[in-house]
Write a structure and sequence with these properties.
Helix content is about 35%, strand content about 15%. By secondary structure, the chain is α/β, with parallel strands linked by helices. It starts with 5 loop residues before the first helix and ends in a 6-residue tail after the last helix.
């Protein structure tokens, strides 16, 4: 805890964000940092709650409650309040390999389960976490720590997103010789190419990757396992394999006009934008531009928000975002009690930027797209929608019902499909004959991570389906622990 009476003395103060009108003119991170004095005050709000639900990390019926990696949140809040930053960093690194990633891009389920949140606004856990790790780098406390002793075991990791990097970090700490394969030209997976620069600057990712390389992890880029290298080569040449390739197969919208030009998957849009930005500051033109276009984003969530924010920086003409679900309530509904993550209405950074520029929140709720219409030259020019309402059938399932008379036509030069992902891509799993679950993910029990193939483990979105960065780190750490146990007969990894 922080100060015993701190939650009564201090109001919640979030870290400030840059002015939306100014920040859409560049690709720098949109959030700023608080002073140490402010951070101490925010740490002081951590109350003597008895049971810190913030760090429980439980999952019930697909709903996350608390931090999945069990961050020792009250401990490092107390240390920040007392000005003991290095000790706070040590506590933070005990559970989280990459606080700079979660501190920037995690939706913070810990805050949704904060006990103070029952009666007041929760503690600013995410801001404090990011401040701790950034101070650690600034002070030179974060340095390479290669293992003192090496085993003779070799482990291959497929995928360099948060799950793959967490597994690599842990297995390297155990002394194994770790090689990470990435199909793209830069390490980081969705951390590099899935999250825009304004949300997570790539220098932050590169800083951590360089540290891991200095600790002895080998990174091989531009190599797609299953295509450039047969997956079976890994099982021949390594003592164990961890599959952490993500759930990268996007959900499509199979309606009339889908084959028109100008309709793209969200990740194709985001990936190309980041790649061109990093390679040439957009000078090479190798990206899908929203400049001077009427943009429609279909789908919500973080990916939809990132598409909105990126389109704003391209200087789009207009922007509308469709969500098929109802508008969330202003406060928790009866079926969304604490300590579950609160599904309530909020304006994220992308919608805030669009609202400032165009005068309103760009989201339209309970809207279903019926068809795309072209301009005669193969390009999309408009889409047709209808409003829906949700009805519960006899089996208890909620189904959409179209509302007659609500049909509408929207101008659209660029349509971005941000409807989530349906599972992992197939080559690696097919070549290794990995069993799948009912959602096509690699079949492996949470906590065990062993697939049906001896010595092959699966972690992150490839095993659990599309999820949060913090769950990917949880699974990468867990898979590393079980992989180490498999290799050595026992393990000291947490």
């Amino acid at each position: 805890m922080g100060k015993p009476t701190g939650f009564m003395e201090y109001e919640r103060e979030d870290a400030p964000s840059r002015n939306p009108q100014e920040r859409i003119e560049d690709w720098n991170e949109y959030h700023e940092h608080q002073s140490e004095e402010k951070l101490k005050e925010q740490g002081a709000r951590c109350m003597d709650c008895g049971v810190p639900f913030c760090q429980t990390g439980e999952e019930k019926e697909g709903k996350t409650m608390g931090c999945p990696i069990h961050n020792l949140i009250p401990e490092w809040n107390d240390l920040v309040y007392k000005g003991k930053w290095k000790e706070a960093l040590d506590r933070l690194h005990k559970t989280n390999n990459f606080p700079e990633f979660t501190g920037s891009a995690c939706p913070a389920p810990c805050e949704g389960s904060c006990v103070l949140g029952i009666i007041d606004k929760p503690v600013t856990i995410k801001n404090i976490e990011l401040a701790i790790i950034e101070k650690g780098f600034e002070e030179g406390w974060v340095t390479p720590e290669p293992p003192e002793n090496r085993t003779d075991k070799k482990v291959a990791i497929v995928g360099s997103g948060p799950a793959g990097l967490a597994a690599a970090d842990q297995l390297n700490k155990a002394g194994h010789n770790v090689t990470v394969y990435e199909r793209h030209d830069k390490i980081g997976g969705l951390l590099t190419y899935g999250i825009p620069n304004q949300k997570l600057e790539k220098s932050v990712v590169k800083r951590r990757v360089n540290l891991l390389a200095d600790e002895g992890i080998e990174f091989i880029t531009n190599t797609e396992i299953g295509t450039d290298v047969p997956a079976t080569e890994l099982t021949k040449n390594f003592d164990a394999v961890v599959l952490a390739g993500g759930a990268t197969k996007p959900r499509d919208l199979d309606i009339e006009g889908r084959d028109l030009d100008g309709i793209h998957f969200a990740m194709d849009f985001l990936h190309a934008n980041v790649e061109s930005l990093l390679d040439s500051d957009h000078e090479n033109g190798n990206y899908i531009s929203a400049k001077d276009k009427d943009v429609i984003v279909i789908g919500g969530g973080d990916t939809g928000t990132d598409c909105v924010s990126t389109s704003m920086r391209h200087d789009c003409k207009s922007l509308t975002q469709f969500e098929i679900l109802p508008k969330p309530p202003e406060s928790r509904s009866d079926d969304n009690p604490w300590p579950e993550w609160p599904h309530i209405y909020k304006v994220d950074y992308g919608q805030e930027e669009a609202k400032v520029r165009f005068g309103e929140d760009p989201r339209k709720y309970q809207v279903m797209t019926k068809k795309f219409v072209g301009d005669g030259d193969g390009n999309v020019k408009e889409l047709h929608t209808v409003e829906i309402e949700w009805e519960t059938n006899d089996d208890g399932r909620k189904l959409p019902k179209e509302i007659s008379g609500t049909e509408k036509v929207w101008k659209a030069d660029l349509v971005l499909l941000a409807m989530g992902f349906s599972g992992p891509e197939n080559p690696v799993l097919d070549q290794l004959k990995i069993e799948r679950d009912e959602r096509s993910n690699a079949k492996a029990e949470h906590g065990d991570y062993q697939t049906n193939v001896d010595g092959v483990f699966a972690a992150g979105d490839m095993r659990r389906g599309q999820s949060l960065i913090v769950w990917a780190i949880n699974e990468g750490r867990g898979a590393a622990r079980e992989c180490d146990r498999y290799l050595m007969g026992s393990t000291e990894l947490p």
